[in-house]
Amino acid sequence: MDNHSAVAADTTRTTVQRRLEALILENRFTIAVVFPFIGAVTLVASAEGLLPSPLAYNPLLILFGTMVMRSPLVVGLLPRIGWWALGCLGLLTAYTYAIEVVGVRTNWPYGAFEYTIQLGPMLFGEVPLALPLFFIPLVLNAYLLTLLVLDEWSDNHVIRLLSAITAVVAIDLVLDPAAVAIGFWEFVPAGGYYGVPVSNYVGWLISGTVAVVLVDLAFDRESLLERVRTCEFILDDLVSFVLLWGVINVLYGNWLAAGVSGLFCLGLFRTDRYDRDLVWRAVPSRLVGDESS
What we know:
Elements: H1 3-26, H2 28-47, H3 59-77, H4 83-106, E1 113-115, E2 122-123, E3 127-128, H5 131-150, H6 157-181, E4 185-187, H7 198-218, H8 221-230, H9 236-251, H10 255-270, H11 276-280, H12 285-292
Antiparallel strand pairs: 1-4, 2-3
Helix pairs in contact: 1-3, 2-3, 2-9, 3-5, 3-9, 4-5, 4-7, 5-6, 5-7, 6-7, 6-9, 6-10, 9-10
């Protein structure tokens, strides 16, 4: 590729990036707040038999809603994703499928569990084909929030990795009880933590460690931290996660799990990720004009 072609490619990428960022910013409240609340309501209604069969646990709606809520994270990270990062994330994708297939077939490392509904097309008829869409963003969210909360302490390799791994496991302390409650999957026998066994968290400790190490290798930390600090919406997917699964845990009385989601709320508040712009952009432009006048 000659210099002219390289410059043209860079210009095109910059233009596309700006348009995507503008699209996210214009719809930020809808993506980060409206979608997870609608998701929580429809999933609980599906679990309680309140929706007709075409809508209950509709895999297309689940996948569409998940992709929309993931979009701020994807768009936020795009400027920092090069070939090296793609390679590391590709390895993480392969690992995600492998550990899940092993888990379903051998009951290791998570314990005996099975999917009770189809979350879209199933790989080998056993695990969701969209599994990386569900899992990898959770790891990225945990890692990015860790960088922001630790600030200068994130320079320490051991502290950074241990904190991010802890955050990944904490995310599952929120996710699995809610997912079991609405019937996404079940453990046999049921565990003591809202139906989830301790073995599941041993499994998440193992898979989370591998995932965090790969994410840490994928990006230049200083460049990534600069991007996270300056991109106001990059953690909106974590906002969606807290709202969606936190609301479900509250509705089913999973108070400890809801409390852990509250800790993520504190982290988001501390890092100014529940900022006024998230709500302010939902206000009609006419009212904004009236207020500014």
